[in-house]
Amino acid sequence: MGNNMLDFVFAVDDPVTWHTMNLMQNRKHYSFLKYLGPRQISNLQGNHGAGVYYNTLVPCDGRVIKYGVISTDALIEDLHHWKTLYVAGRLHKPVKILVQDESVRLCAALGSNLKSAVTAAFLMLPESCSIEDLFVQIAGLSYSGDFRMLIGEDKAKVLNIVKSNMPHFHNLYGSILQECSQVVYKPQQGKLEVDKSPEGQFTQLMGLPRNLQQEITRLVDPPGKNRDVEEILLQVAQDPDCGLVIQQGISSIVKSSSLTQSAKGIMTAGMLKTVSYSFKKLMKMWKGSRRKSS
Q1: CA angle, 123 then 125 then 129, to 5°
Q2: Can you say whether residue 100 is alpha, beta or left, with left for phi > 0 and alpha for psi between -120 and 50 degrees?
Q3: How far is it, in rounded angstroms, from Cα 210 to Cα 189?
Q4: Angle at the Cα of 108 (from 107 to 111), degrees rounded to 5?
Q5: DSSP 8-state code for residue 84
Q6: pTM for this prediction
Q7: CA-CA distance, 256 to 83, in Å (whole number)?
Q8: Residue 128 forms beta bridges with which residues?
């Protein structure tokens, strides 16, 4: 871990004020965009890509870090509705929360995001599966449709995340599984029995984030028919390919946000850092593929 870049995300109530202060203290962290000033940086942050502004390859206390800035309101929206799944997807995995205020809205949104991840994973898993299967499915949600998994990422990344963090995944999702009526959870055996009846799947579909429901509607409903969401989800619940439809809906969300955020990242990082960062990613992918082949 000592050589890996640390990834921070700061949720801030007032991005303009935050960037104003950060430009005064850490101007070198920014690309040429620093000349546009904090207001334009905040506009770029909030109105393009996934609502996150990243400074990358920043030296800090003998390590290299990158840090993203997102408004608290944008974060809460992503957690509840999966508008982009960019930060919400990161928070499906175990993370270290360094500082958190007592915002009831944010706490509720964090919990909602984890429950949504479990529900989406249930819909894509078979009736009987292992707890590791569930965690791999959850950890992979935010990579589904991400073009960076084709170029620049280690293909075994998701499995590696889960295998090295099993106790943390248990801490994150254990109580949700214990309380969930849609699954029989057998922690001692590490097994799950998921309700795959049409009624059970309909309940799960109705519990998905709003934006994912809308993507499913767009995929399933023919143009011009304009049926309501509940009617479409009832149809999907009875479809043998229900899990595939969910997968396609999630991929559509992730593909769009990963492309636009990456394009924005070229501007926020600058060309030199972008080339350096991309080269390191490609080297990591190459090393991972060599380990797999040997």
Answers
A1: 135
A2: beta
A3: 34
A4: 90
A5: S
A6: 0.87
A7: 10
A8: 193
